Amino acid sequence: MTISLYNTLSRRTEAFVPLDPSRVTMYVCGPTVYNYIHIGNARPPVVFDVLASLLRRHYPNLVYARNITDVDDKINNAAAAAGVPITEITGRFAQAYRDDVAKLGVAPPDVEPHATAHIAEIITMIQRLIASKHAYEAEGHVLFHVASYPAYGALSGRDPDELIAGARVEVAPYKKDAGDFVLWKPSDETLPGWDSPWGRGRPGWHIECSAMSEAHLGDTIDIHAGGVDLTFPHHENEIAQSVCAHGGKPFARFWLHNGMLTFDGRKMSKSLGNVLQLHELLKKHPGEALRLLLLRGHYRQPLDWSDAALTQAVRTLDGWYGVLRDLADVSASAPVVPAAVEAALCDDLNTPQALAELSQLADAARRATGDDRIAAKAALVGGGALLGLLQQDPEAWFRQGNPGEEVDAAMVEALLEERRAARAGKDFARSDAIRDQLKALGVTIEDSAQGTRWSVVKA
Predict the structure, then answer these.
(1) What's residue 409's pLDDT?
(2) Domains of the chain (ranges plus CATH)?
């Protein structure tokens, strides 16, 4: 199948053909590690994790890079407020990010470059930009001169003058033009800094990604992805400095941007008090349910978050895992990715359609009989795998409950054994009392031809 992707740069859906099929390159903007991320920040790693899985089916030698920004003024402020070294903040929250997205079923990238490990590359790129007259030094700063790059604004599709007028840009006397952006800025003794030809300082935000992408993926990459909020100025500035540093070569051939999350129809913001940290959500809800919720809308569209939607995600997984639980007696066979699921994802990563196909596969597996149950199970597990879903043991899913609300499985089994004995002795009052006791613990039981099965109710 041909993979088609909507390219923000061209504003149309295009067939994806890599520069080099033997080494496909993708770069996704990662976190600035000064705090836990909110649930909206989790959408890019989840969405583009699915894209990476799809790409690997077609191009096994994908090189997927997702960076860590570990030098930034927000980090400096967080470290100062806590009275700790910068590295204590960045180390803690970088690991928290890895741990939390892993609980969403996100696989690690092939490359995870850190900005502070690429200072030499950043300085070298800035030197090239100065030499080619695209950047200039002023009062310890180095700035990119936007007017030197006529194509500036092509990604966001707006006139450069309008972009600059509508942006929150620092108007400083050392700038040639108000829209010029910082590549390097000075650091005093209270701030992290590195020696450079322009004095002790630290890199600006935008130059980091250009230098790290060049170092690990090359001058021109196949796919650059991130949230739509990064289109301007971050990605616009990345294009300008990368193209100019590479003598006019294209920076990224495909630009993909995911839509933002809203909360009950309103934008998530600290001022509204509706920012939900992923770290806290994972203490209360299964990571797989959060992943499903993040995939239920098309990645390019806004996605509304609600408690009802999360509950529905849990119930959907209950249904699908219930089918797999009923097929526990079916001999294991190699999972098969159904064509319909793959076709949906090849169509600009249409996860809503892929999930609809998965639901149909679950219905078909529920109705299957005889030898057809083997193929039905393989298709359901294989389709789920491409979406990063349904890879747990079904019994583990039903018995895990919500995080932090573990149930003593041995105790449950002991009560069920007592209930079986009571039923055998026709002591139905005791049998019902045990059912009620389990219900009070959040455990439901189901009597079937295969015996009694139990589940922990999830919120």
Answers:
(1) 80
(2) 4-263 (3.40.50.620), 306-394 (1.20.120.640), 409-456 (no CATH)
